[in-house]
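A reminder from the course coordinator: this example appears on the midterm review sheet, so study it carefully.

Given structure:
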């Protein structure tokens, strides 16, 4: 098997909704990843209504991550919760994405994009 297929074979796709202040939610989600010793690889903001985290986490930390996300106010979809529960029995690193819809986010929020030299 090719190395890239082995790496991307363990994908975890999570979707959730969060109410409350978006900045506090994002900070609490960051803390949840830290508590679970998960690495955030990339973050994308879609205006002020959605944020997507790309991450890697060892399966032994999935329960910790689920608890931290719940404390952060993120309500995960049923499929994501089931995938986390099933994945906890494995012994490997999973790569995943977490898309959070921010109910009280600003749909007209603009993010400053730095200029690239050249």
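Designed residues:
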């Amino acid at each position: 098997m090719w190395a890239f297929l082995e790496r991307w074979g363990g994908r975890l796709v999570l979707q959730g909704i969060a109410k409350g202040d978006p900045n506090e939610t994002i900070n609490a989600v960051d803390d949840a990843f830290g508590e679970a010793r998960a690495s955030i690889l990339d973050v994308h903001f879609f205006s002020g209504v959605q944020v997507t985290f790309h991450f890697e986490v060892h399966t032994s930390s999935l329960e910790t991550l689920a608890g931290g996300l719940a404390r952060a106010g993120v309500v995960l979809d049923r499929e994501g919760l089931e995938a986390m529960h099933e994945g906890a029995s494995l012994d490997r690193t999973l790569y995943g994405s977490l898309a959070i819809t921010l109910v009280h986010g600003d749909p007209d929020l603009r993010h400053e994009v730095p200029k690239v030299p050249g």
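Residues 6 and 74 are 30 Å apart (CA to CA). The chain has a mean pLDDT of 86.
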